[in-house]
Amino acid sequence: MKDNMADNESVECITEHERILQEIESTDTACVGPTLRSVYDDQPNAHKRFMEKLEVRIRNHDREIEKMCNFHHQGFVDAITELLKVRADAEKLMGQVTDTNRRLQDAGREVTAQTEEVIRCRIQQRNMTTTVERLQLCIPVLEMYSKLKEQLESKRYYAALKTMEQLEKVYIPRVSRYRFCQIMAENLPKLREDIKDISMSDLKDFLESIRKHSDKIGETAMKQVRDVVVVIIYKQNGVVCVEVDQRLTSSKSDLIDVLTAQDLVDFSPVYRCLHIYTVLGDRETFENYYRKQRKKQARLVLQPQSNMQETVEGYRRYFNQIVGFFLVEDHVLHSTQGLLTRAFTDELWNMALSKITAVLRTHSSYCSDPDLVLQLKNLIVIFADTLQGYGYPVNRLFDLLFEIRDQYNETLLKKWALVFREIFELDNYSPIPVETEEEYKSVVSRFPFHDAEIEKQDFPKKLPMSQSVPQIYVQVKEFIYASLKFSESLHRSWTEIDDMLRKSTNLLLTRTLSGCLQHLTKKPHIGLTELVQIIINTTHLEQACKYLEDFITNITNVSPETVHTTRLYGLSTFKDARHAAEGEIYTKLNQKIDEFIQLADYDWGMPESDGQASGYLMDLINFLRSTFQVFTHLPGKVAQTACMSACKHLSTSLMQMVLDSELKQISMGAVQQFNLDVIQCELFASSEPVPGFQGDTLQLAFIDLRQLLDLFMVWDWSTYLADYGQPTSKYLRVNPSTALALLEKMKDTSKKNTIFSQFRKNDRDKQKLIETVVKQLRSLVNGMSQHS
User: Fold this and answer.
1) Which of residues 254 and 699 earns the better pLDDT score?
2) What span, in angstroms and rounded, lies between the C-alpha atoms of 197 and 189?
3) How far, rounded to the nearest angstrom, does the alpha carbon of residue 604 sit from its chain's CA centroid?
4) Do the Cβ atoms of 597 and 653 come closer than 8 Å?
């Protein structure tokens, strides 16, 4: 059984080796490895059997090869023999071919040379044709580029940009494959930027130049507007005349045509730069830049010089620059499409108008010269008229002129205040003497004075007012003339001018002249005589106010009966001044009385009186008599009031003298002497120093002193105490506290007083009576204080 198994394995092994050999024979040698490896993976010693099998196969193949070689050997030998025979013929043929080739080469060498020359010529011809064709395409490009260079050199930038556009869109695309075209194409953006930079540089130069020319542009425009119509207001024989001087025959519209800024300024940089940026598609950038720069320049133009208010030339330069600036803007607005808009110029003008009004309001407030303010007003009017002709609204400027008019009036008021004070300083405060008819007419021509009685008098004669009255009247009219000058060219109706004149005149009268009169009356060197003359002067000035109203009416031709016509307040002004002068008269009279009272030198302990009035009092009465004689020219009530005031003040001063707390003792003799002085005062009052008093009205000023002195002189205490508080009391004006104060002063001197000494020696009951009176008086005083 083992033998059978061995045989089976041997048969399988042989079959496997046979398969492997077939694979080796049929497989590429590069893939033999796996097949050979399978020999070694089989049973042990299988490779030996395989080698044996392989040897057998090799021997079989060798026998087959040998058989085949033997079979074909004779044919091979025959072939070699035939080949050797052909060899000699081949060598002969080779020699013939070589000779033929040599002869052919010799014959074709010249043809080849000619052919190569023909080919070379054909190539050159083709290249020349191509070159001509290419040059025909390139020449227009080069010509256009050359034209571009010429345009750039001649600064024809707008045309250069058009040429660039043609190069880019038409010419360069035809020859874009050439290097020089590529260089051109790359260079064109740079040239565009160069053009932008150059045009922007020209614009900056233009903007710088326009700043320098603005002053000249504005000066020319304002001069032409100023010369169109000139309104002249002047005086002729005391009458105001208005004359219109037509210095140019051209109309305002014709004038505007003349006032073109391009006559003085070359605007081509603006147009060129605008076109360039428009072509380059960057117009918005240019518009923003131009507007921004002009706004900056506007702020610079609107910035005034620090000392502009000192001279009119400073204002003129300021206005010239502003007018020049906005005339340039107006020209650019109308000569370009969209670079500037009306909204932008309006915004710029509104900004400028706010700045201008603020500047003028500030600088004019520092101006104290009315002539300079008037010149400034004329400049503002010309400035406004010039810009209004170009469509700029100027209503705010005319509104500002009303503010400046108030400033002008203020400067006029200050100037006329100095004029009035100088007139008052130089016045002699005495009636105007006129020696001849010519002198009288000279005064009357300057001041509306009419008095039938004085006209009937013979020369020489005196007019009641002093020299200051006609001078003041003339100066008020001069003020009206000066105020009227401001109304020229303000485009206001005569009704408004009339109202302005009346209001400014009212300010002159109620504030300036009134203030000067008030100041005058309070000056220390102005005495009673001067005050009396001042009252007379103000009376005549008050009467002349209606002539001032007629004077204004003649100027404006506005009826004073118009509803809105302002009335002059001169009447109240001069009344107030007169009342102030009257008050000063009362005050100075009282001061003079106080000066005399201070000269009083009573011996309050004198045993008996001197039998005559004190010297100081007689001097005082004589002064009052002479003073009241001067008051004859005053209105009756003024003189009466002054006289009554003086008597009351004298009475009060005498009462205070005897009741002075520093005076401790008064003798009966001193009371008698004091009574003599009071009697002189009463005699003066009864002598009617000023006419017009009824009865003993003036004497009532001394009634308090008289009743007090009668009470002590008569020693009528029983009647006083019994009738106290009764309306019919004899001593109704004697106050218990006054009587008590004087009685206590006399009581303290009882030991030194002769009368009281007799009372004490002869009748002590009388001394007790005094004590009783004192107690009763104190009781009355205490009762009055408790009741109050």
Assistant:
1) 699
2) 12
3) 76
4) yes
